[in-house]
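Raw record, unedited: Glycosyltransferase 2-like domain-containing protein
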Amino acid sequence: MGGYTIVDNNSEEFKKLSLCMIVRNEEEKLAQCLKSVRAVVDEIIIVDTGSEDRTKEIALSFNASVYSYEWNDDFAAARNYGLEKSTGDWVLWLDADEEVAGESVELLRNVLKEDKYWLGSVQIINYYGPLPASYNQSHLLAQYRLFRNNSNLRFRNAVHEQLDISELGLTKQSVITLPVNIHHYGYMDYEVEVKGKSERNLRLLEKEKQLEDYDPWIDYHIGSELYRSGELVQAFESVNTSIRRFLEKKSMPPSLLYKLKYSILLALGSYEGAKDGINFAIQLYPDYVDLHFYRGIIYMQSKEYTKALISFNHCLELKEVNTAHLIMVGVGSFYSHYYIGVCHQNLKNYEKAKDAYLKTLELLPDHRDAHEALKLIEGSSATTFGAIGE
């Protein structure tokens, strides 16, 4: 984290940072979120959309300004209402199921002292799967969570809202990337089941889709919700619609769409049909490690082990550092090591397979399949170990 210094709040460079949030019935999580940032924000704006628990009381205990907002099925509108109430020079936006990592929180203020920046990008660690949260079960994505408080910067889309920066004409020099991590727990199994997020999101997305010339992201988000609920064919149709609509608007479809598309095809077992398409997607996004990983899986499941090894080794070269793309933790490390082992074992390169499994276990000691594969190798040098899913 060299090169970053903490701004002295008593210096003449001091500027005000506002935290803006929208909440509803978040009594179990809100305090944890606010504790993570209270030392660095100067104002807390809470927009409450109808809480029936202790959410407002908890917010007030942190000296927050709490505003009631009649819910109208529009997350962007609620966020924009909060922005209108904020008085800071800069805005940080969070959700109640998030917290800023303690080791990096003070670095948020570095953006305030630089007049040349308009946006601050941080890394979101999106956890999935069962409790407790584990970094090895997460996705990484860089997001704009800090921005200069300006009437031209507002959120759009009623659900899965995004900060609309399209009219600002910003350059790369206008954005600072901060070594700050935000932990997001909202898509862990328990959260999704308890809150019924998929049903709510699908309802709002279908409503948004009725608008004339709706955002192509809407079809992507519908596909994502359908994928999570196991409706794979419908999810595939939605993501293809999103890709087509981006192209119709003369925009290159974002990398996230191709990640979802090939996640669905792998889940459907459509390996042969996915080969040409994944190669095209990699031509568009050659630095996206997840796409190379998916290509490795496709070749491995087709028993083209030598080609699969090239893909998995390239994943190790790319690592998991370019979080401009949504990256699954492990694809540039322990998962690729494991599948390198699978490929070598099927090619009867047992020493190389053993080495790959040991590297897997160095990074992820409780990787059960790697342990089992090592037992097979040690038990019989003639064992051929089938690829997962064969």
